Amino acid sequence: MMLGPHAGFILGAYAFTALVVGWLILHALRDHRAQARALAALQDGTGERP
Q: Does an H or E element contain 2, and which?
């Protein structure tokens, strides 16, 4: 694969995009777990916030 003189920029852009997408996935998973815990607490009738 020939990227030419802009190879650094192209690879850097792909790497940055991969990091951002990875962070968004991680954030969504962590938020999902937190929301599931909060919902479970509300359904248990304790009404406590995590």
A: none
